[in-house]
Amino acid sequence: MSYVDDAYTQKSNLGYIRSSMNEPMLERDHEFDLATRWKNNGDEKALHELVRSYTRLVIASAAKFKHYGLPMGDLIQEGNLGLMQAANRFEPERDVRFSTYAAWWIRASIQDYILRNWSIVRTGTTAAHKSLFFNLRRLRARIDGAETEHGLTSEGREKIAQALGVRIKDVEDMEGRMHRGDQSLNALISDDGEEEIGSFLADTRPNPEDVVIGMKDAQTRSAWLNDALKKLSEREQHIIRERHMQYETVTLEDLGKKLGVSKERVRQLEARAMEKLRDSLSKGSKKFHDYMGDVA
């Protein structure tokens, strides 16, 4: 998938890049002063100066990821979000330059954006998937004999898996995802035909006849169960409903407290009620085994 900015957007991006590169570099002491004023006093003027001075870091980091086909302006915007997060979390007393600290946040923000938007199919969220996504191309080009015109070799997949500390299966999955781009279901199968890709996808939903039969069977089983429940005492019905017909079942102990009996007594009453239900249902229908799972 590849996006191309229009002429107006490209012009705006270029203007922003130029202004960012013209921002003055900060001396270490001045940077420390700005960061301290923001952290201790909430000085927004100091924050703005600190952030503006390091937007050049965002530009440089975004440029490294432009080959993923996403708009440069969006990459810069995400990098700026990372820069703002870095400024909000930075602790000047640790004696680390803000540029060193911010570079990680900027890169992480841009990478997360790429993973979310590179494809409409989720590329992966684990550390292994992220490492593979951003390093697979580089390692594939560096390892001798790692790939042929048909893709990675078995030896190449194994070497990449070892280099990144991931499973070979993860390498295979990511290779497949990155090799196949997104395609519209309305795309034509061939240039001279009218058949679309979507027309060849099987519909896994049940057909109307199966839906009607399923509804009818469910209604029948429900009627059988209600008739069987009516043959139980009120206390037995209450136990069955609380223990087997609720989204969250009640424990024997809690049910015993409500009924004023011991947990063991509730268990005995439940077992007796279940046996009555089985007998009643088995006599009322020849399809006993079809619905026993609903009450067992």
Q: How is the secondary structure organized here?
A:
Blueprint: H1 7-21, H2 28-41, H3 44-53, H4 55-64, H5 72-89, H6 98-117, H7 127-142, E1 147-148, E2 151-152, H8 154-164, H9 168-179, H10 208-230, H11 234-244, H12 252-259, H13 263-284, H14 288-295
Folded structure, characterized:
- This protein has 296 residues and is mostly helical.
- The chain has 3 domains: 1-118, Four Helix Bundle (Hemerythrin (Met), subunit A), CATH 1.20.120; 123-182; 208-295, Winged helix-like DNA-binding domain superfamily/Winged helix DNA-binding domain (Arc Repressor Mutant, subunit A, Orthogonal Bundle).
- The chain contains 14 helices and 2 strands, in the order αααααααββααααααα.
- It has a two-stranded antiparallel sheet.
- α7 (127-142) packs across α9 (168-179).
- The longest helix has 23 residues, at 208-230.
- The two termini are 52 Å apart.
Uncertain residue ranges: 291-296
The largest β sheet comes out as: 2 strands, antiparallel
Secondary-structure element pattern, one letter each: HHHHHHHEEHHHHHHH
Q: Estimate nothing, just give the exact number of structural domains.
A: 3
Using the coordinates above, name the CATH class of the largest domain: Mainly Alpha
Q: Count the beta strands.
A: 2
